[in-house]
Amino acid sequence: MAPKRQRWRLFVRCGRLPGLSLACRAVSTEPASHDPAAYQPAAVEFHLEALGVAAAAKSGLSIRKLHEVISAGAVNSGLFQMIVGKMLENGDLTGLKFTLSNAAKDLRYYTHFTESMMLPSIVGEAVHQSLVTANALGFGDKYVASLIEAQEKLAGVSIVRR
Predict the structure, then answer these.
(1) Span 5-28, mean pLDDT?
(2) How much is the pLDDT for 162?
(3) pTM of the full structure
(4) Which of 29, 105, 140, 160 has the fewest CB atoms nearer than 10 Å to its CB?
């Protein structure tokens, strides 16, 4: 007898974004007691924020200017302000109080969830590996905004005011 497969319902939010006709993201799944897909959009966002500020620093672009432009546009978000906004204010990397080790664990749940259905999750796997890398660099006990510190180390640039 085959093991009983748990059924999941995936809820997706879609909307129009500048330059794209339609963009969608998973916002939650059921059952709520084990919700691996709900975490993935936030993980992708803070990963992209860390990469973005590292690319700005490496290219010589002002991170303050980057923050100003993003803050005025459609991609501004509470996560962006908690991570990049607080970092720019005073070097504070505690805006989102969730450790990198927990973030890696939670995203691992998501990647295993998609693997169990033979569903490719290229971006989810890449973000998971960035979290694994940050942990390997010694940032596991720090909050997710410290992905910026991991990017500093990997890119050989100075980002966070100390």
Answers:
(1) 45
(2) 83
(3) 0.73
(4) 105
Backbone angles phi, psi at 24, to 5 degrees: -130, 150
- Of the chain, the end-to-end C-alpha distance in Å amounts to 60
Residue 157 half-sphere exposure toward CB, CA atoms < 13 A: 19
User: CB–CB of 85/66 below 8 Å?
Assistant: no
- C-beta of residue 54 within 8 angstroms of C-beta of residue 151: yes
CATH topology of domain 36-155: N-(1-d-carboxylethyl)-l-norvaline Dehydrogenase; domain 2 (1.10.1040)
For the chain, give every domain's residue range: 36-155
Element (DSSP H or E) covering residue 108: helix 100-116
Q: Which of 8-12, 71-75, 85-89 has the highest mean pLDDT?
A: 85-89
Q: What residue has token string 């607080």?
A: 86
Question: Residue 152: which pLDDT band, with cuts at 50, 70 and 90?
Answer: very high
